[in-house]
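Morning!

This is the sequence you dropped in the shared folder:
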Amino acid sequence: MSKILHDIVVQNRRGVRTSIPSVCSAHPEVLMASLQLASELSRPVVIEATSNQVNQFGGYTGMTALDFVGHIQDLVHQAEIDPDLVILGGDHLGPQVWKSERKETAMAKAHDLVAEYVRAGIRKIHLDCSEGCSDDLASLDDATVAARAAQLARTCKDAASDPSDLVFVIGTEVPPPGGARLDDNGHIVSTRAADARATVAAHKAAFAAAGVADLWPQVMGLVVQPGVEFGPDTIHALPARRDPGLRAVLCDHDAMCLEAHSTDYQQPEVFETLADLGFAFQKVGPALTFAWRHALYALDHLLGVLRPATPRLPMVLERAMRDTPKYWTSHYPASKSMLWHFGYADRIRYYWPVPEVQKAVGLLLSEIDALDLPDHVFSEVFSDETLQRAPGLASSRSLSLARAEVQIALRPYFLGADRD
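The structure's back. Tokens below.
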């Protein structure tokens, strides 16, 4: 697995416009659609879990790392996809989930977290200790962040059956308190090259100090902010012709690329530009569940016209969000229910596993399929591209359309030649 990522990084560093998408989603249908697309293109894809989604205590998905790996393996088997196309990753692994606790306790849990990820077979590990704990200063310096990350790398090494197959990512793009900074033109401020260079230097020194200098060549990714972001109702596009000069930071690190987070909702040409700027690893998540939601709401609209008495999916979801508001209250005001459904932050994604919501989705799909609608009816709410892509993606026509919407959102991330 590390060879696949290494080859992509090397090609990108040589100036080839290539990148690999990292899909960060817990939704099984989004994951299935992503795996099907990777198989169709014969291109590798990274499937990532975050520390709040999946951890030793279950995370919000209820899955441990071993559960997550088994879940992905089941999807791969169901879809008859080449398992060599699928690389498993862990994103923002560190003390973040437990940052309200003292650093000694939080970091102990972080060590257990990364060890479980590695033992479960997850190979791409993002070490992120950038957020302080309850007894830390408000802002941590590079040396402290790097020292903690290096200690986690040591734990990964000790937990791995084959440490040489691990791939590490360092750095972070998480906005500071108060949100991402904007320049005078309203664009997201990119990471400064000097700051990125300091991050790399601090981590390299920390790896040596922690006795894991041998792992440094396996640090293949550096997370930085290129200038892309999204908020509840805003997309910050990458400014045209922007080059923050971050590729040059890696001139002494031939096997390292840049990793971009929060690339969701950008125009397709942006992913090409990011690849040209050195971002061989490009992450996406909310845009895919947003596409899934868009498809289901489109189907719900048709059903509402044809069978007005049928319970409406948006009403079921809104009730679930009102009953359990913890996943959206820090993102949306209660007065803006429009954002609950249509916000780019896509906080609605946390509510798909709710049993009542699952039941409503199942009813919606079965009711639509029972109507046996012709394409010209579906064209009222779906594009020609979706209608053309959908056939064969699932035995259910409605589910095929929803998966097609997800694939259309993901397709621009696959850059480079298809595999033979």
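Headline: The mean pLDDT is 94.

More detail when I'm at my desk.
O.
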